[in-house]
Amino acid sequence: MHPQRWGDPASAVELPESARGLVDLAFGLQDRPATTGATPPPSVLDDDLLDGLRTIVGREHVLVDDATRALRTRGKSTPDLLRARAGDLSDAPDAVVRPDGHAEVEAVLAWADEHRVAVVPFGGGTCVTGGLAARRDGFAGLVSLDLVRMKRLLAVDDVSMTATLQPGLRGPEAEALLAAHGLTLGHYPQSFEHASIGGFAATRSSGQSSAGYGRFDAMVVGLTAATPTGSLDLGSAPANAAGPDLRQLVLGSEGAFGVITSVTVRARRLPEVKAYEGWRWPSFDAGADAMRTLAQAGLLPTVLRLSDESETAINLADPSSIGGADDPGCLMITGYEGAAAQVAARREAVTAALTGLGGTPLGTEPGEKWVQGRFHAPYLRDALLDHGVLVETLETATFWSDRERLYADVKAALTDVLGEGVLVLCHVSHVYETGCSLYFTVAARQGEDPIAQWQAAKAAASDAMIAAGATITHHHAVGTDHRPWLAEEVGEVGVRMLRAVKAELDPAGILNPGVLIP
Protein backbone atom coordinates (compact mmCIF):
# COMPACT_ATOMS: atom_id res chain seq x y z
CA MET A 1 0.00 0.00 0.00
CA HIS A 2 1.07 3.59 -0.65
CA PRO A 3 1.21 5.64 2.59
CA GLN A 4 -1.04 8.34 1.06
CA ARG A 5 -3.68 6.04 -0.46
CA TRP A 6 -5.68 2.89 0.05
CA GLY A 7 -4.85 -0.51 -1.36
CA ASP A 8 -3.27 -1.42 -4.68
CA PRO A 9 -2.10 1.66 -6.64
CA ALA A 10 -3.08 -0.16 -9.84
CA SER A 11 -6.71 -0.14 -8.65
CA ALA A 12 -6.84 3.60 -7.94
CA VAL A 13 -9.74 5.43 -9.57
CA GLU A 14 -10.41 8.96 -10.70
CA LEU A 15 -13.59 10.70 -9.64
CA PRO A 16 -16.14 9.43 -12.20
CA GLU A 17 -17.27 12.09 -14.66
CA SER A 18 -20.86 11.25 -13.82
CA ALA A 19 -20.20 12.19 -10.18
CA ARG A 20 -18.18 15.37 -10.72
CA GLY A 21 -21.20 17.57 -11.18
CA LEU A 22 -22.89 16.24 -8.05
CA VAL A 23 -19.72 16.65 -5.98
CA ASP A 24 -19.15 20.16 -7.33
CA LEU A 25 -22.73 21.12 -6.52
CA ALA A 26 -22.61 19.70 -3.01
CA PHE A 27 -19.08 20.62 -1.92
CA GLY A 28 -17.30 22.57 -4.64
CA LEU A 29 -14.38 20.92 -6.39
CA GLN A 30 -10.96 21.80 -4.99
CA ASP A 31 -7.56 20.46 -5.89
CA ARG A 32 -5.82 18.99 -2.84
CA PRO A 33 -2.80 17.19 -4.32
CA ALA A 34 -0.69 15.08 -2.01
CA THR A 35 2.82 16.21 -1.13
CA THR A 36 5.42 14.20 -3.00
CA GLY A 37 8.90 13.23 -1.92
CA ALA A 38 8.27 13.12 1.84
CA THR A 39 10.69 10.97 3.83
CA PRO A 40 10.54 9.63 7.39
CA PRO A 41 12.76 11.07 10.12
CA PRO A 42 16.11 9.30 10.51
CA SER A 43 16.03 6.08 12.51
CA VAL A 44 17.15 6.47 16.12
CA LEU A 45 18.27 2.83 16.40
CA ASP A 46 21.98 2.39 15.77
CA ASP A 47 23.66 -0.62 14.17
CA ASP A 48 24.95 -1.98 17.45
CA LEU A 49 21.39 -2.22 18.75
CA LEU A 50 19.96 -3.53 15.49
CA ASP A 51 22.56 -6.28 15.32
CA GLY A 52 20.65 -8.08 18.05
CA LEU A 53 17.56 -8.15 15.81
CA ARG A 54 19.62 -9.24 12.83
CA THR A 55 20.88 -12.19 14.80
CA ILE A 56 17.31 -13.25 15.53
CA VAL A 57 15.60 -12.89 12.13
CA GLY A 58 18.47 -12.49 9.67
CA ARG A 59 20.08 -9.32 8.37
CA GLU A 60 17.84 -9.16 5.28
CA HIS A 61 14.72 -9.10 7.48
CA VAL A 62 15.65 -5.97 9.47
CA LEU A 63 14.84 -3.03 7.19
CA VAL A 64 15.68 0.60 7.89
CA ASP A 65 15.35 2.17 4.43
CA ASP A 66 13.01 5.14 4.09
CA ALA A 67 10.66 3.51 1.57
CA THR A 68 9.91 0.47 3.72
CA ARG A 69 9.54 2.54 6.88
CA ALA A 70 7.15 4.92 5.08
CA LEU A 71 4.94 1.99 4.04
CA ARG A 72 4.62 0.94 7.70
CA THR A 73 3.60 4.38 8.92
CA ARG A 74 0.14 4.52 10.52
CA GLY A 75 -2.99 2.91 9.06
CA LYS A 76 -5.66 3.97 6.57
CA SER A 77 -8.07 6.25 8.39
CA THR A 78 -8.77 9.57 6.70
CA PRO A 79 -6.63 11.44 9.29
CA ASP A 80 -3.81 8.95 8.64
CA LEU A 81 -4.03 9.63 4.90
CA LEU A 82 -4.31 13.39 5.35
CA ARG A 83 -1.15 13.46 7.48
CA ALA A 84 0.74 11.44 4.87
CA ARG A 85 -0.62 13.67 2.07
CA ALA A 86 0.73 16.68 3.95
CA GLY A 87 4.18 15.08 4.04
CA ASP A 88 4.00 14.12 7.73
CA LEU A 89 5.68 10.73 8.22
CA SER A 90 6.75 11.50 11.79
CA ASP A 91 5.19 8.28 13.10
CA ALA A 92 7.36 6.07 10.88
CA PRO A 93 8.99 3.16 12.71
CA ASP A 94 12.74 3.21 13.20
CA ALA A 95 13.01 -0.29 11.72
CA VAL A 96 10.76 -2.90 10.12
CA VAL A 97 11.41 -6.39 11.48
CA ARG A 98 10.07 -9.50 9.75
CA PRO A 99 10.13 -12.61 11.95
CA ASP A 100 9.25 -16.09 10.71
CA GLY A 101 7.42 -18.13 13.32
CA HIS A 102 6.44 -18.03 16.97
CA ALA A 103 9.96 -18.52 18.33
CA GLU A 104 11.35 -15.56 16.40
CA VAL A 105 8.46 -13.35 17.54
CA GLU A 106 9.19 -14.33 21.15
CA ALA A 107 12.88 -13.53 20.68
CA VAL A 108 12.13 -10.12 19.13
CA LEU A 109 9.87 -9.25 22.07
CA ALA A 110 12.57 -10.31 24.52
CA TRP A 111 15.06 -8.06 22.68
CA ALA A 112 12.61 -5.16 22.72
CA ASP A 113 11.85 -5.67 26.40
CA GLU A 114 15.56 -5.69 27.25
CA HIS A 115 16.32 -2.53 25.29
CA ARG A 116 13.01 -0.76 25.98
CA VAL A 117 12.01 -0.47 22.32
CA ALA A 118 8.30 -0.16 21.47
CA VAL A 119 6.83 -2.82 19.16
CA VAL A 120 3.85 -2.33 16.83
CA PRO A 121 2.55 -5.58 15.29
CA PHE A 122 1.70 -5.03 11.60
CA GLY A 123 -0.54 -7.21 9.45
CA GLY A 124 -2.25 -5.62 6.47
CA GLY A 125 -2.04 -1.99 7.62
CA THR A 126 -5.75 -1.35 7.08
CA CYS A 127 -6.47 -0.06 10.61
CA VAL A 128 -8.78 2.98 10.68
CA THR A 129 -8.67 3.86 14.39
CA GLY A 130 -5.09 5.00 14.96
CA GLY A 131 -3.99 1.57 16.14
CA LEU A 132 -0.67 1.64 14.27
CA ALA A 133 0.61 4.97 15.61
CA ALA A 134 2.09 3.93 18.94
CA ARG A 135 3.33 6.34 21.60
CA ARG A 136 7.12 6.80 21.50
CA ASP A 137 7.69 8.80 24.68
CA GLY A 138 9.99 7.04 27.10
CA PHE A 139 11.20 4.40 24.63
CA ALA A 140 14.59 4.00 22.95
CA GLY A 141 12.87 3.60 19.59
CA LEU A 142 10.00 1.91 17.80
CA VAL A 143 9.93 -1.10 15.47
CA SER A 144 7.18 -2.35 13.19
CA LEU A 145 6.82 -6.10 13.68
CA ASP A 146 5.81 -7.00 10.14
CA LEU A 147 4.25 -10.49 10.03
CA VAL A 148 4.42 -10.74 6.24
CA ARG A 149 6.64 -13.86 6.31
CA MET A 150 4.18 -15.80 8.49
CA LYS A 151 1.79 -16.89 5.74
CA ARG A 152 1.28 -20.62 6.16
CA LEU A 153 -1.73 -22.86 6.50
CA LEU A 154 -0.38 -24.95 9.39
CA ALA A 155 -3.08 -27.59 9.73
CA VAL A 156 -6.49 -28.69 8.47
CA ASP A 157 -8.85 -30.94 10.42
CA ASP A 158 -11.43 -32.21 7.92
CA VAL A 159 -13.31 -34.07 10.64
CA SER A 160 -13.64 -31.19 13.10
CA MET A 161 -13.80 -28.62 10.27
CA THR A 162 -11.03 -26.41 11.63
CA ALA A 163 -7.91 -24.86 10.12
CA THR A 164 -4.84 -23.33 11.75
CA LEU A 165 -3.50 -20.21 10.02
CA GLN A 166 -0.55 -17.92 10.56
CA PRO A 167 -1.30 -14.22 11.13
CA GLY A 168 0.41 -12.71 8.08
CA LEU A 169 -1.96 -14.28 5.55
CA ARG A 170 -4.05 -11.69 3.72
CA GLY A 171 -7.73 -12.47 3.24
CA PRO A 172 -7.44 -13.69 -0.39
CA GLU A 173 -4.35 -15.76 0.43
CA ALA A 174 -6.09 -17.53 3.30
CA GLU A 175 -9.17 -18.24 1.16
CA ALA A 176 -7.01 -19.66 -1.65
CA LEU A 177 -5.19 -22.03 0.72
CA LEU A 178 -8.46 -23.19 2.28
CA ALA A 179 -10.17 -23.57 -1.11
CA ALA A 180 -7.56 -26.19 -2.03
CA HIS A 181 -9.13 -28.28 0.77
CA GLY A 182 -12.69 -27.43 -0.27
CA LEU A 183 -13.09 -24.98 2.64
CA THR A 184 -13.79 -21.30 3.28
CA LEU A 185 -13.92 -18.91 6.22
CA GLY A 186 -16.54 -16.71 4.59
CA HIS A 187 -15.03 -13.63 6.25
CA TYR A 188 -15.23 -10.66 3.86
CA PRO A 189 -14.83 -7.24 5.50
CA GLN A 190 -14.41 -4.26 3.17
CA SER A 191 -10.66 -4.52 3.89
CA PHE A 192 -10.63 -8.21 2.81
CA GLU A 193 -8.22 -7.77 -0.11
CA HIS A 194 -5.47 -6.30 2.09
CA ALA A 195 -6.18 -7.09 5.75
CA SER A 196 -4.60 -10.08 7.50
CA ILE A 197 -5.76 -13.04 9.54
CA GLY A 198 -3.89 -11.67 12.55
CA GLY A 199 -5.55 -8.32 12.09
CA PHE A 200 -9.00 -9.92 11.89
CA ALA A 201 -8.34 -11.58 15.24
CA ALA A 202 -6.63 -8.66 16.96
CA THR A 203 -9.50 -6.29 16.11
CA ARG A 204 -12.48 -8.67 16.40
CA SER A 205 -13.39 -8.04 12.80
CA SER A 206 -16.85 -8.58 11.36
CA GLY A 207 -17.29 -9.38 7.67
CA GLN A 208 -19.99 -8.47 5.20
CA SER A 209 -21.34 -12.04 5.34
CA SER A 210 -21.57 -12.07 9.14
CA ALA A 211 -25.28 -12.91 9.10
CA GLY A 212 -24.38 -16.33 7.74
CA TYR A 213 -20.78 -16.95 8.82
CA GLY A 214 -20.54 -14.93 12.03
CA ARG A 215 -17.92 -12.51 13.33
CA PHE A 216 -14.27 -13.50 13.15
CA ASP A 217 -13.91 -13.77 16.94
CA ALA A 218 -16.75 -16.31 16.90
CA MET A 219 -14.82 -18.38 14.34
CA VAL A 220 -11.69 -18.64 16.50
CA VAL A 221 -11.53 -21.85 18.53
CA GLY A 222 -7.85 -21.61 19.47
CA LEU A 223 -4.82 -19.35 19.24
CA THR A 224 -1.19 -18.90 20.18
CA ALA A 225 0.34 -15.59 21.21
CA ALA A 226 3.77 -14.39 22.25
CA THR A 227 4.11 -11.89 25.09
CA PRO A 228 7.17 -10.36 26.77
CA THR A 229 6.56 -12.63 29.79
CA GLY A 230 5.84 -15.91 27.99
CA SER A 231 3.57 -17.63 25.51
CA LEU A 232 -0.15 -18.35 25.47
CA ASP A 233 -1.56 -21.50 23.85
CA LEU A 234 -5.33 -21.44 24.19
CA GLY A 235 -8.18 -23.56 22.88
CA SER A 236 -8.11 -27.21 23.93
CA ALA A 237 -11.79 -27.85 23.16
CA PRO A 238 -14.66 -26.32 21.17
CA ALA A 239 -16.23 -25.12 24.41
CA ASN A 240 -15.40 -25.32 28.09
CA ALA A 241 -16.32 -24.10 31.56
CA ALA A 242 -12.70 -23.71 32.69
CA GLY A 243 -13.09 -20.18 33.94
CA PRO A 244 -13.30 -17.03 31.77
CA ASP A 245 -12.45 -17.60 28.11
CA LEU A 246 -8.90 -16.28 27.82
CA ARG A 247 -9.08 -16.49 24.03
CA GLN A 248 -11.49 -13.57 24.13
CA LEU A 249 -8.99 -11.59 26.20
CA VAL A 250 -6.48 -11.81 23.37
CA LEU A 251 -9.01 -11.33 20.57
CA GLY A 252 -9.55 -7.61 20.19
CA SER A 253 -6.43 -6.70 22.18
CA GLU A 254 -4.77 -4.99 19.17
CA GLY A 255 -1.28 -6.21 20.02
CA ALA A 256 -1.33 -4.50 23.42
CA PHE A 257 -1.27 -7.82 25.34
CA GLY A 258 0.74 -9.96 22.94
CA VAL A 259 1.38 -10.87 19.31
CA ILE A 260 -0.97 -13.47 17.83
CA THR A 261 1.20 -16.02 16.02
CA SER A 262 -1.51 -18.48 14.88
CA VAL A 263 -5.27 -18.94 15.05
CA THR A 264 -7.33 -22.09 14.73
CA VAL A 265 -10.63 -21.23 13.14
CA ARG A 266 -13.88 -22.95 12.32
CA ALA A 267 -14.16 -23.50 8.56
CA ARG A 268 -17.10 -24.24 6.27
CA ARG A 269 -17.43 -26.19 3.04
CA LEU A 270 -17.09 -24.10 -0.10
CA PRO A 271 -20.58 -23.07 -1.17
CA GLU A 272 -22.06 -24.78 -4.20
CA VAL A 273 -24.30 -21.81 -4.91
CA LYS A 274 -24.07 -18.04 -4.37
CA ALA A 275 -27.02 -15.76 -5.07
CA TYR A 276 -27.50 -12.07 -4.23
CA GLU A 277 -30.52 -9.85 -4.77
CA GLY A 278 -32.06 -6.53 -3.86
CA TRP A 279 -35.21 -5.42 -2.06
CA ARG A 280 -36.86 -2.02 -1.82
CA TRP A 281 -38.32 -0.69 1.42
CA PRO A 282 -40.36 2.51 1.70
CA SER A 283 -38.32 3.71 4.68
CA PHE A 284 -35.24 2.92 6.73
CA ASP A 285 -37.44 2.10 9.72
CA ALA A 286 -39.53 -0.37 7.73
CA GLY A 287 -36.45 -2.13 6.39
CA ALA A 288 -34.81 -2.29 9.83
CA ASP A 289 -37.97 -3.76 11.34
CA ALA A 290 -37.92 -6.43 8.64
CA MET A 291 -34.28 -7.25 9.48
CA ARG A 292 -35.18 -7.59 13.15
CA THR A 293 -38.03 -9.93 12.27
CA LEU A 294 -35.71 -12.16 10.24
CA ALA A 295 -33.05 -12.23 12.94
CA GLN A 296 -35.46 -13.06 15.72
CA ALA A 297 -37.19 -15.72 13.61
CA GLY A 298 -33.90 -17.46 12.82
CA LEU A 299 -34.32 -16.71 9.10
CA LEU A 300 -31.12 -14.82 8.36
CA PRO A 301 -29.60 -15.13 4.88
CA THR A 302 -25.81 -15.18 4.52
CA VAL A 303 -25.68 -11.45 3.68
CA LEU A 304 -28.17 -8.89 4.97
CA ARG A 305 -27.58 -5.14 4.60
CA LEU A 306 -29.87 -2.11 4.49
CA SER A 307 -29.03 1.39 3.24
CA ASP A 308 -30.95 4.44 4.44
CA GLU A 309 -32.64 6.81 2.03
CA SER A 310 -29.58 9.00 1.52
CA GLU A 311 -27.15 6.16 0.94
CA THR A 312 -29.60 4.48 -1.43
CA ALA A 313 -30.00 7.63 -3.52
CA ILE A 314 -26.28 8.44 -3.67
CA ASN A 315 -24.81 5.01 -4.21
CA LEU A 316 -27.13 3.50 -6.81
CA ALA A 317 -26.19 3.91 -10.44
CA ASP A 318 -29.87 3.96 -11.37
CA PRO A 319 -32.08 5.05 -8.46
CA SER A 320 -35.13 4.99 -10.72
CA SER A 321 -34.92 1.22 -10.75
CA ILE A 322 -36.16 1.08 -7.18
CA GLY A 323 -38.75 3.77 -7.03
CA GLY A 324 -37.75 6.82 -9.01
CA ALA A 325 -35.10 9.48 -8.49
CA ASP A 326 -37.39 11.46 -6.19
CA ASP A 327 -38.29 8.45 -4.06
CA PRO A 328 -35.62 5.77 -4.20
CA GLY A 329 -36.73 4.23 -0.93
CA CYS A 330 -34.17 2.10 0.88
CA LEU A 331 -32.15 -0.69 -0.68
CA MET A 332 -31.67 -4.00 1.11
CA ILE A 333 -29.16 -6.56 -0.12
CA THR A 334 -29.72 -10.23 0.65
CA GLY A 335 -27.26 -12.98 -0.20
CA TYR A 336 -27.35 -16.76 0.05
CA GLU A 337 -24.40 -19.16 0.03
CA GLY A 338 -24.26 -22.89 0.58
CA ALA A 339 -25.48 -26.20 -0.79
CA ALA A 340 -28.03 -25.78 -3.58
CA ALA A 341 -30.94 -27.30 -1.68
CA GLN A 342 -30.19 -25.29 1.47
CA VAL A 343 -29.92 -22.02 -0.49
CA ALA A 344 -33.19 -22.69 -2.29
CA ALA A 345 -35.04 -23.42 0.95
CA ARG A 346 -33.62 -20.44 2.85
CA ARG A 347 -34.18 -18.08 -0.07
CA GLU A 348 -37.81 -19.18 -0.41
CA ALA A 349 -38.45 -18.70 3.31
CA VAL A 350 -36.78 -15.26 3.44
CA THR A 351 -38.57 -14.13 0.27
CA ALA A 352 -41.94 -15.08 1.74
CA ALA A 353 -41.15 -13.27 4.99
CA LEU A 354 -39.89 -10.07 3.34
CA THR A 355 -42.81 -9.96 0.91
CA GLY A 356 -45.23 -10.34 3.78
CA LEU A 357 -43.54 -7.50 5.64
CA GLY A 358 -43.94 -5.07 2.74
CA GLY A 359 -40.69 -5.41 0.83
CA THR A 360 -40.53 -5.19 -2.96
CA PRO A 361 -38.19 -7.67 -4.69
CA LEU A 362 -35.80 -6.10 -7.21
CA GLY A 363 -34.19 -9.19 -8.65
CA THR A 364 -30.51 -10.09 -8.78
CA GLU A 365 -29.07 -7.00 -10.52
CA PRO A 366 -28.70 -4.84 -7.36
CA GLY A 367 -27.17 -7.77 -5.50
CA GLU A 368 -24.65 -8.50 -8.24
CA LYS A 369 -23.67 -4.81 -8.45
CA TRP A 370 -23.06 -4.80 -4.71
CA VAL A 371 -20.86 -7.90 -4.90
CA GLN A 372 -18.81 -6.42 -7.75
CA GLY A 373 -18.18 -3.15 -5.91
CA ARG A 374 -18.12 -4.11 -2.25
CA PHE A 375 -14.36 -3.60 -1.80
CA HIS A 376 -14.07 -0.42 -3.91
CA ALA A 377 -15.37 2.38 -1.66
CA PRO A 378 -11.96 3.27 -0.11
CA TYR A 379 -10.57 3.93 -3.61
CA LEU A 380 -13.37 6.43 -4.21
CA ARG A 381 -12.47 8.09 -0.90
CA ASP A 382 -8.98 8.76 -2.28
CA ALA A 383 -10.47 10.40 -5.38
CA LEU A 384 -12.73 12.59 -3.24
CA LEU A 385 -9.83 13.62 -0.98
CA ASP A 386 -7.97 14.67 -4.14
CA HIS A 387 -10.82 17.13 -4.81
CA GLY A 388 -11.12 18.61 -1.34
CA VAL A 389 -13.96 16.46 0.01
CA LEU A 390 -13.48 15.15 3.53
CA VAL A 391 -14.76 11.56 3.62
CA GLU A 392 -14.65 9.20 6.57
CA THR A 393 -16.65 6.42 8.20
CA LEU A 394 -17.61 5.44 11.72
CA GLU A 395 -19.71 2.66 13.16
CA THR A 396 -21.50 1.60 16.31
CA ALA A 397 -24.07 -0.92 17.52
CA THR A 398 -27.04 -0.96 19.84
CA PHE A 399 -30.13 -2.92 20.80
CA TRP A 400 -33.12 -2.85 18.45
CA SER A 401 -35.17 -0.75 20.89
CA ASP A 402 -32.54 2.03 20.79
CA ARG A 403 -31.76 1.98 17.05
CA GLU A 404 -33.89 4.95 16.02
CA ARG A 405 -32.55 7.20 18.77
CA LEU A 406 -28.94 6.27 18.04
CA TYR A 407 -29.38 6.86 14.31
CA ALA A 408 -30.93 10.29 14.85
CA ASP A 409 -28.48 11.40 17.54
CA VAL A 410 -25.31 10.49 15.62
CA LYS A 411 -26.58 12.18 12.44
CA ALA A 412 -27.48 15.30 14.43
CA ALA A 413 -24.08 15.40 16.14
CA LEU A 414 -22.22 15.16 12.82
CA THR A 415 -24.42 17.80 11.20
CA ASP A 416 -24.05 20.20 14.13
CA VAL A 417 -20.25 20.13 13.87
CA LEU A 418 -19.74 19.90 10.11
CA GLY A 419 -22.60 22.20 9.07
CA GLU A 420 -25.65 21.89 6.87
CA GLY A 421 -23.58 21.04 3.80
CA VAL A 422 -22.48 17.74 5.29
CA LEU A 423 -23.73 14.51 3.77
CA VAL A 424 -24.36 11.71 6.28
CA LEU A 425 -25.16 8.26 4.90
CA CYS A 426 -25.89 5.14 6.92
CA HIS A 427 -26.51 1.44 6.55
CA VAL A 428 -27.26 -1.45 8.86
CA SER A 429 -24.22 -3.63 8.29
CA HIS A 430 -24.62 -6.48 10.80
CA VAL A 431 -27.64 -7.89 12.63
CA TYR A 432 -28.28 -9.99 15.71
CA GLU A 433 -31.39 -11.24 17.48
CA THR A 434 -31.04 -8.41 20.00
CA GLY A 435 -29.69 -5.53 17.92
CA CYS A 436 -27.71 -4.25 14.98
CA SER A 437 -24.72 -2.23 13.82
CA LEU A 438 -25.05 1.21 12.19
CA TYR A 439 -22.29 2.19 9.76
CA PHE A 440 -22.08 5.89 8.86
CA THR A 441 -20.29 7.47 5.92
CA VAL A 442 -19.67 11.22 6.19
CA ALA A 443 -18.73 13.69 3.45
CA ALA A 444 -18.12 17.43 3.82
CA ARG A 445 -16.09 20.19 2.22
CA GLN A 446 -12.55 20.17 3.61
CA GLY A 447 -11.72 23.14 5.79
CA GLU A 448 -8.32 24.71 6.34
CA ASP A 449 -7.48 22.05 8.92
CA PRO A 450 -9.37 18.92 7.82
CA ILE A 451 -7.81 16.74 10.52
CA ALA A 452 -9.08 19.00 13.31
CA GLN A 453 -12.38 19.27 11.41
CA TRP A 454 -12.84 15.50 11.47
CA GLN A 455 -11.60 15.09 15.04
CA ALA A 456 -14.28 17.49 16.24
CA ALA A 457 -16.95 15.61 14.29
CA LYS A 458 -15.70 12.23 15.51
CA ALA A 459 -15.72 13.42 19.12
CA ALA A 460 -19.29 14.70 18.83
CA ALA A 461 -20.48 11.45 17.24
CA SER A 462 -18.66 9.39 19.89
CA ASP A 463 -20.23 11.43 22.68
CA ALA A 464 -23.62 10.80 21.10
CA MET A 465 -23.00 7.04 20.96
CA ILE A 466 -22.03 6.86 24.63
CA ALA A 467 -24.95 9.08 25.65
CA ALA A 468 -27.32 6.77 23.77
CA GLY A 469 -25.92 3.75 25.60
CA ALA A 470 -24.37 2.28 22.44
CA THR A 471 -20.89 0.89 21.86
CA ILE A 472 -18.06 3.13 20.70
CA THR A 473 -17.13 0.57 18.04
CA HIS A 474 -18.73 -2.56 16.60
CA HIS A 475 -15.92 -3.89 14.40
CA HIS A 476 -13.16 -1.29 13.96
CA ALA A 477 -11.53 -1.85 17.38
CA VAL A 478 -10.33 0.87 19.78
CA GLY A 479 -6.86 2.00 18.70
CA THR A 480 -6.09 5.50 19.89
CA ASP A 481 -9.13 7.16 18.31
CA HIS A 482 -11.74 5.41 20.49
CA ARG A 483 -9.64 5.10 23.65
CA PRO A 484 -10.94 8.35 25.26
CA TRP A 485 -14.46 6.85 25.33
CA LEU A 486 -13.61 3.27 26.31
CA ALA A 487 -13.59 4.04 30.03
CA GLU A 488 -17.17 5.26 29.77
CA GLU A 489 -18.19 2.05 28.02
CA VAL A 490 -16.48 -0.48 30.29
CA GLY A 491 -16.45 1.50 33.56
CA GLU A 492 -13.79 2.07 36.21
CA VAL A 493 -13.50 -1.59 37.22
CA GLY A 494 -13.22 -2.63 33.57
CA VAL A 495 -10.38 -0.17 33.03
CA ARG A 496 -8.55 -1.52 36.09
CA MET A 497 -8.90 -5.05 34.71
CA LEU A 498 -7.40 -4.05 31.37
CA ARG A 499 -4.52 -2.24 33.05
CA ALA A 500 -3.85 -5.24 35.29
CA VAL A 501 -3.64 -7.61 32.33
CA LYS A 502 -1.33 -5.19 30.52
CA ALA A 503 0.93 -4.92 33.58
CA GLU A 504 1.11 -8.70 33.96
CA LEU A 505 1.79 -9.61 30.32
CA ASP A 506 3.81 -6.53 29.31
CA PRO A 507 5.25 -4.91 32.44
CA ALA A 508 7.60 -2.63 30.48
CA GLY A 509 4.71 -1.48 28.27
CA ILE A 510 6.54 -2.08 24.99
CA LEU A 511 3.59 -3.59 23.09
CA ASN A 512 1.75 -0.99 21.00
CA PRO A 513 1.97 1.66 23.74
CA GLY A 514 -0.90 4.14 23.88
CA VAL A 515 -3.33 1.84 22.09
CA LEU A 516 -6.50 0.41 23.67
CA ILE A 517 -5.71 0.88 27.38
CA PRO A 518 -7.38 4.03 28.86
From TrEMBL:
The active site is at Y439. Substrate binds at R381. Residues 89-270 form the FAD-binding PCMH-type domain. InterPro entries: Alkyl-DHAP_Synthase (IPR025650), FAD-bd_oxidored_4_C (IPR004113), FAD-bd_PCMH (IPR016166), FAD-bd_PCMH-like_sf (IPR036318), FAD-bd_PCMH_sub2 (IPR016169), FAD-linked_Oxase-like_C (IPR016164), Oxid_FAD_bind_N (IPR006094), Vanillyl_alc_oxidase_C-sub2 (IPR016171). GO terms for biological process: lipid biosynthetic process. Keywords: FAD, Flavoprotein. Its cofactor is FAD. GO terms for molecular function: alkylglycerone-phosphate synthase activity; FAD binding. The record marks R305 as: Important for enzyme activity. FAD binds at T203, R204, S205, S206, E254, G255, A256, F257, G258, V259, I260. Belongs to the FAD-binding oxidoreductase/transferase type 4 family. This is FAD-binding oxidoreductase. It comes from Nocardioides eburneiflavus.
